[in-house]
Amino acid sequence: MKEHSYFVAAYLRLSRDDEDIDGSIKSESNSISSQRELLRSYVRGHGDMELFDIYVDDGYSGANFDRPEFKRMMSDIKAGNVNCVIVKDLSRLGRDYIEAGRLIQKTFPAFHVRFIAVTDHFDSQTADYNTKSLVLPVKNFINDSYCRDISQKVKSHQKIKREQGKFIGAFAMYGYRKSDEDKNRLCPDDYAADIVRNIFAWKLEGMSTLAIAQRLNELGILSPMEYKKAHGEKFSTSFQIKPTAKWSAVAVKRILTNEVYTGIMVQGKSEQVNYKLKKTVVKPEKDWIRVEGTHEAIISHEEYELVQALLGVDTRAKNGSKYAHLFSGMLFCGDCKEPMIRRVNRYKGTSKVYFICPTRNKSQGCTRHSILEEELKTVVFQTLQTHAALFLDICSQLEYIRKMEIQFEEVARFDKEIERMHKEQDKYLELRAGLYEDLKSGLITEADFKSFRTIYERQYEDIKNALSKQEEMMKQLFRNGIASGVKLERFKEVMKLTELSRDVLLCFISRIEVYEEKKVYVELREKEEFGKMLVLQEYLKEQKREGKG
C-alpha cells in the first residue's frame, strides 16, 4: 500500500434497535442510504483515502458481532486489503461495550487499521489519550445501555401483547393464518385446518405418529415448512435437515401437542438468555401465557385431551399395521399397573387373541392376568351400555330440576364427597388451633409450631381448593342440568351399537384394569361429574318420597 494512503472499508448497519417499538425508524439519518452517502462524502473529502468496499448489515442487532458483512470486512482486514474502517457513529460498529472497546483499542491497532466514527468525531489516528481512555469507553457504555434499554422495552411490549391474547409470532402455526384485518389475530387456514383435523382423527383411530406421517407423505400433503414456502413465506427452521422437508413423527407430534388448536393462545414458552445472545431457554409450563377464546378452534378441548392421554402411553402399531389395537393405551394390569401386551395364539389354522401382564412375561413377578380379547370386548361393552342406560335415566329425571325452586345447599347435603371434605377442613382448623395450646404448655418448640402450622395451613388450602372444584361441578349440573348435548347424544348412540368401537371407547372410558380371574375394572371419563349426577338423582328420589317432586 502507498505511504499515507488508506484503503477504506465503509461499514453500515441498521437493525430493529434503531426503530421505535411500533416499527417506525427513529431517525432518517440512521437509514442505510443516509449512512452510505455520508461515508462516501467523507472519503471523497480526503485525498489520501480510497474506498475499497462497502459492507452493509441491514437488519442485524448491534448487541453482538455475529453479522455476515462484519465478518467479511474482518476477513479483508486480516488479508491486508483494508487499513481503515469508517462508520457513521460508534453505535453502527456495535453496541456491546466490551467487544466494541476491544475492537477499537486492541484488534484494529494490531492490524494497523485506522478507525473513524464520523459523527462522533473520533479518529484513532488523532485521538489523544483522554479521548481513547475516557470519552470512547463512556460512549460505548452508553450505546450498550441503550441496547439493553431497548431490549427491555421490546420484551415488556411483547409481554403486554401476549397477555392480551394477541399473536406476536413471525409466522402462524400450521392450520392458521394471520388475519388480513389484524396481523395479531389468527384465522383458520381452511386447507391446512382440515389436515390438522385429520391428524387428530387418525390418532384417535389408533394410528401412531409415524404412521400418520407416512400417510401424509403418501397422499402428497406438503409438510408445514413446504406449505409455507409454497405460499411465498420466507420460513426457515432448525428442524429441517433435507432440501425438501417431509412429514415426520416429530412434526406430527408437534401438532398433536399444540393447545393453540383448541382456541387458546399459548405464548412465551421460551425466552432469550439476554439481549447480547441469540440463545433461548425453555420456560417452565407454569410461566407460559395462556389466553382463552382468542381465535376459532380447530380441535375441541375434549378431543385434544383424549389425544394427550393417548400420547402419554405406548400406542405403537404391531406387525407393520398402521393402527394400534382397540384397547391400545388404555389397558393395564390391575396389580402392577403396567400396560398389558397383546398376544396371538395360532393353532391348526385358528387364532386366538389375548392380553397378558408384561412383567409376568418378563419373569419380574406379578401373575399372568390372561384374558381373551373377545371376552374383554364383551365385558367392557356391557359395562359401557349399563352406564349409558343409567346416564340416560338420570338425564330424564334431571329435567325436574329446572322446574323446581330448590336451593343448592339442599342438594349438596346429599353429596358424601363434599360432606367428607368439609369434615376434613374442620379437622385441620382444630389441629391448627390446638398448636397454640401445645406451644404454651411446652409440648412443642417454636420451630415445631411454625412447621406444623405451615403443614396444616397448606393441607387446609388444598382441601379448600378441591372442595371448591367439587361444589362448582355440582352447581354447574344444578344450574344447567345436562347441558352437554353432545355427550347425551353420544350415550344414545352407545345404546344402539352392537359392538365396541375405538371411537366410543376413547370418548367414554379413560382406563381399563384387568385382575386375576378375569375381573375387569372400567374407569369412565368425567367420573366425578357422573358421581354428582348420582347425587342429584338421590336428591330427586328423596323429593319424590316426601311428595315434593
Strand content: 15-25%
Low-confidence stretches: 20-29, 482-486
SS class: alpha/beta
Distance between the termini: 107 Å
Number of strands: 17
Quote the average pLDDT.
Answer: 78
The helix fraction, in percent, is 40-55%
Counting H and I runs of at least 4 residues, what is the number of helices?
18
Spatial order of the strands in the main sheet? 2-1-3-4-5
Rg, please?
35 Å
Overall geometry: elongated
The biggest sheet, with number of strands, parallel, antiparallel or mixed sense and barrel status, is: 5 strands, mixed
Structure description:
The chain has 549 residues and is α/β, with parallel strands linked by helices. It is 49% helix and 15% strand. The protein contains 18 helices and 17 strands. It has helices spanning 32-44, 68-78, 90-93, 97-110, 129-163, 190-205, 209-218, 224-230, 249-256, 301-311, 358-361, 373-403, 408-412, 416-440, 446-480, 485-496, 502-508, 527-545; strands at residues 6-14, 49-58, 84-87, 114-117, 122-123, 176-178, 186-188, 264-267, 270-274, 277-282, 289-292, 331-333, 341-347, 350-356, 371-372, 509-514, 520-524. The strands form 6 sheets. Strands 2-1-3-4-5 form a 5-stranded mixed β-sheet, sandwiched between helices. β13 and β14 form a beta hairpin. The longest helix is centred in the N-terminal third of the chain and has 35 residues, at 129-163. Residues 20-29 and 482-486 have low confidence and may be disordered.
